[in-house]
Every structure is written in C-alpha cells, then in structure tokens.
Amino acid sequence: MSKPDKHESASELLAGWRAAKRDTAAAHTAQKVAILALAAAVAAEEAADEVETAAAAAATAVELARGAAERARKAAAAAAEAAQMLLAAAEGDQARAGQGVDKAELAETTARDAFHDAESKGFPKT
User: Fold this and answer.
1) To 10 degrees, the CA torsion angle through 26, 28, 33, 38?
2) Within its chain, how far is the Cα of 41 from the centroid?
3) Which of 24, 49, 66, 71 has an alpha carbon 20 to 30 Å from 89's alpha carbon atom?
4) Backbone dihedral region of 123: left (phi > 0), alpha (psi from -120 to 50 degrees) or beta?
5) How many CB atoms are closer than 10 A to CB 16?
6) pLDDT tens for each residue of 21-50
7) Measured between alpha carbons, how far is 16 from 4 in angstroms, rounded to an integer?
8) pLDDT (0 to 100) of residue 6
9) Rounded to an integer, what distance in angstroms lies between the CA atom of residue 74 and that of residue 80?
10) 11 near 4, Cβ under 8 Å?
11) What is the C-alpha separation between 38 and 30, in angstroms, rounded?
C-alpha cells in the first residue's frame, strides 16, 4: 500500500485503515476457504480412489460368483444324473426283489401242499 499524502485528514486515514483491515479479514477468510477447498478436493480424490477400488472388488466378486454358480450348476447336473442312475438301479432291485418274493411264495405253497398231501396220507412211515 502506498504512503498516504500528508494532506489526508484523520477521518480519511481512519477510513483507509478500516478498509485495509476489512481487506485483510477477507483475505484471511479466502485463505481459510482455499484450505478447506483443498482438503475437500483431497478427500474427494481419496473417495474416488476408494470407489474405484470397491468397484474393481465388486467386479471381481461378480466374476467369482459367476464361476461358483457355473460349478454349482455342473455339480447339480452330475448329482441329478447320478440320482437317475440310482433310481434305475433301485427299480431293478425292486423288480428282482419282487421276483424273489414270487419264488419264495411258490416254494412256500409247494412245501405247504406237500405237507398237507403227506398229512392226508398219514405221513409216510420210514
């Protein structure tokens, strides 16, 4: 600031001083705003970096989930195929068991009839 002329009155000097004081206060406020703006910009940049990292992690998680889902689908298909084979084997076992029952019932009927026939004849004396 330039030196005041000697012809200035006290009120002019006081007004100049007050104006300079207001300018200084405004400059301090502007400096604080700039500091806060810089801090906000740094925080925004850090947040953007974190969002980018999170997005990359989410994309990786999606890919991992997609792979896991595909493996689970293949495992379920294999389990279904195994279940079909077990069902076919169980149906065969059931049919063979039914045949076994039929043979056992026939053998029982034959043995019963033989017993009753022998009983009606008084059992053979040996």
Assistant:
1) 140
2) 34
3) 71
4) left
5) 13
6) 999 999 999 999 999 999 999 999 999 999
7) 9
8) 64
9) 10
10) no
11) 12
